[in-house]
Specification:
mainly alpha, globular
Length: 128
């Protein structure tokens, strides 16, 4: 997804348009570990919005963290699709196109959407 010219409606459709199976492929623990790093990055960014180089470095680190988590995945868990989506989002934030800060805020919003939908579709719940 190109975050440089995304609209709020497009952002919502991006994470809301995934089906139940997408969200049930990975565990809450995997998402929690990743999301805690996102929260840390968001806190750092909001306290240091001009530290673009450090923020970019941490975004690149997120990609490595997801690769590591995917390599550790058991047979029950599959982070491949989620990882690809997050990689695309990170690459969009890191691209020279558009306003970096706006794209980063959109990135945080999308990840929060992923977390919310994952919780909604969490395996073991009686959701249709």
């Amino acid at each position: 997804m190109d975050l440089s010219n995304a609209t709020p409606d497009q952002i919502e459709k991006y994470y809301a348009g995934k089906d139940k199976n997408y969200y049930q492929k990975f565990s809450s623990n995997q998402l929690r570990n990743f999301f805690s790093e996102i929260v840390s990055l968001r806190t750092f960014y909001r306290s240091n919005p001009t530290q673009k180089a450090k923020i970019e470095l941490r975004l690149r680190k997120l990609k490595a963290m997801l690769l590591y988590a995917e390599s550790k995945s058991s047979g029950k868990s599959d982070l491949k699709d989620f990882r690809k989506d997050v990689f695309d989002l990170i690459d969009s934030v890191l691209s020279d196109k558009g306003d970096f800060n706006k794209k980063l805020e959109y990135f945080f919003d999308i990840i929060e959407g992923f977390v919310a939908y994952h919780k909604f579709y969490e395996a073991g719940k009686n959701l249709s």
